[in-house]
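Q: I have four molecules that I believe assemble together. Could you output structure tokens for the complex as a whole instead of separate predictions?
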Amino acid sequence: MGANDTLMHMKTSSAPVPPAPSDDAAAVELGPLRSMLHHALRAAQAGVMDELQAAFAAEDMRALPFAILVVLSRNPGLRQIQVGFALGIQPTNLVPLIDALEERGLAERRPVPRDRRAHGLFLTRLGAETLARLEAQAAAHEARLAERLGPGGREQLLALLRRLTDPRHPPAQD
Amino acid sequence: MGANDTLMHMKTSSAPVPPAPSDDAAAVELGPLRSMLHHALRAAQAGVMDELQAAFAAEDMRALPFAILVVLSRNPGLRQIQVGFALGIQPTNLVPLIDALEERGLAERRPVPRDRRAHGLFLTRLGAETLARLEAQAAAHEARLAERLGPGGREQLLALLRRLTDPRHPPAQD
DNA sequence: TATTGTTATACTCTATAACTATA
DNA sequence: TATAGTTATAGAGTATAACAATA
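A: Yes, here they are, computed for all four components at once.
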């Protein structure tokens, strides 16, 4: 089941390829990891997140709180539980994240009219302004990624990633 | 720059689609996150890792120590620094991982002949046997993923992920 | 001086259990 | 009895600084 992708890298030229310990450190054999999706996903996600966080560094922001701000901007008044569900964050882990956004004056909790248990979440003015700059940074980052992938590559990658975990995205033409 | 992928989900049938607040919770608007790679990568990686760790649960194993075992099996005697470089783990964070593998009797540190600072890392017999079972689980998991992606999807996804972060994989035909 | 490995430490992200105040 | 939010806590994973032994 694709365990030996390694064999697909055979050269067709007649001159034998030198074992190439040239790179010294890159000479480590990864075996089946080389063609395993979980490993490729980890590497890609780490690299992409590092880049995004570098782009966000000037605003002292990270991917997760940014995602919360984006969701609040499109769904003002949303409750914490719904934000958590949308982003895959458990309610319990959302609390300190919202706390931090509130302390920085970017978001706020407001009482919900008919349910005194719940909090409606809103961006502040400052939050909206900050988010505008962050979204510009994120879009620029996304454009850099798209350039590396070539024409159509980004859309293709998004579709494949969705198929990987979302049952509503069936496999392509069989 | 692909900010409105949302519009690409238009139905071509004449009957207007109901706004579908049907799902109740899925009715949260994600805005630009919906088409951002860093977000799609996070979701995909989390799902895939959850599945892999479920597959590894019987052996009490996780993705990172598994990757170390794989590397040691293909490169016996490798030094910690090289393992870390190959897997993107800092030397300092590798120490407790190797400690744990050693305590479980799966790997061991041996002195290196000509350099008394370094440790050569090796799988134990038990480590090799355990790894064989783990690799079978991982291959089965990989096959399940491949099935979701349809024919050629897995190879396509691997190529795109490499292009995303590895400068040695240039964009496809422009 | 530089390198290999290590300790100590801190931060982010994720996970479970138990609690409160409402409904 | 169930739900929204919270506290406390623990475990991965990752990061920096400083150190010992050796090269």
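A: One point stands out. The first strand of chain B starts at residue 78 and ends at 79.
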